[in-house]
User: Fold this.
Amino acid sequence: MIRVILPPNLRTLARVDGEVELEVKSPVTQRSVLDAVEANHPMLRGTIRDHVTHLRRPMVRFFACGEDLSHESPDTPLPDAITTGSEPFLIIGAIAGG
Amino acid sequence: MSRVRVLVGTRKGAFILSSDGARKRWKVSGPHFAGWEIYHMKGSPLDSDRIYASQTSSWFGQIIQRSDDGGKTWNPPGTKPEDLMASEGMPKGESNMFVYDASPETGKPLTTHQWYDGTQHPWEFKRVWHLEPSLSDPDHVYAGVEDAALFESTDGGKSWHELAGLRGSDTGPKWQPGAGGMCLHTILLDPNNPKRISIAISAAGTFRTDDGGESWRPINRGLHSEHIPDPTAEVGHCVHRIALHPSRPNTLFMQKHWDVMRSDDAGDSWQEVSGNLPTDFGFPIDVHAHEPETIYVVPIKSDSEHYPLKGRLRVYRSRTGGNEWEALTKGLPQRNCYVNVLRDAMSVDALEPCGVYFGTTGGQVYASADAGDNWKPIVRDLPAVLSVEVQALP
Assistant:
């Protein structure tokens, strides 16, 4: 089971509390995790990745296992700790402003 | 007795203020969509329980929300799994997707427009500023967006397509963003002529279609703007708001960056009616629900000092369609008030007597149940108010 932590605004939009748990087929990548997030919570389409380009929105970041994976290829396999569910995949709204 | 529902969009969520027809005691509901910017909410004139909302974020993009029960519950239209997944499992839905139409069949090439530094800049969708439900079908709604373009949905907000003739008009490259962005912020539907729509863009000006949105032309003759190289240019004017009374759709009123204007020929020509206003800078303008020549503005000191003159918050009312204005002060702060009232943050109700409402960047929403003679705050401490719309309910 993959664990995903959404930023507060997207938890509100998706009406979820706490973590989201997902079944994701191997290989587990940013793309497959986000596809599963959007399939389970269709209102999130376009909020994490652009509707048209499917690229990460500029002020959204992906963290996992203490690393910033935002600039990794969306098809790079995620760390084993994500795949096994021992660590969550974090979707972050970048800090901006004062 | 009739009721009213005031739809308030703020920087950090939406609020719904409800009262009976006396408009003295109010119930406050919200925040809805907490933490999100709600640029605008508006109900269908045909079904008051059908409300559309523009929910937006610099981080997470644009969401359109819809309520079919008067704001009790909300859903982004078209986000049910069956709306989004085709039988073969591929996504098919286009909910909340605003894509400029550059197709060869119906669209226009995605050109560039003037940027702040004078260079050309590509069109980029940022947010929906204004939602205007149609006068004939609750599932038909228009959206004015930044970068300036007009979209419509005919399926209750599930899918959107651009009326590309506006952005594709030959003046597009001369449009430029105002301080708030290059936004299409006002959409006026003519109740007598379903093919006529007038819109306003900052900072391009006003435009009109007479063929249902296929073709558009600028209607800015008579405007004079010192902030552009040719003050009487065909486009480039920073129009802040336009308004009409449904009984006289050929008469338009305008609050421009500076100057209050009126047109009696559906925008073909404009005359200044600032008259005795202490300053003719401001953002909103609106028309009394029952008196087509009674109009309201909120004068603001200047384009660099976005607050009332001398710290005194005053609505100005003209009962003569402009030129002769009276200050309305009763119940409004007359000292140390330095808030602004944004372009979509004033509205009127159709009860008798007419109610007038406006919200401030300081989070107050003021109401007058007697056409502006007396005011009271409904709420004082909301986040900065972006928009105010009112529904009169049976």
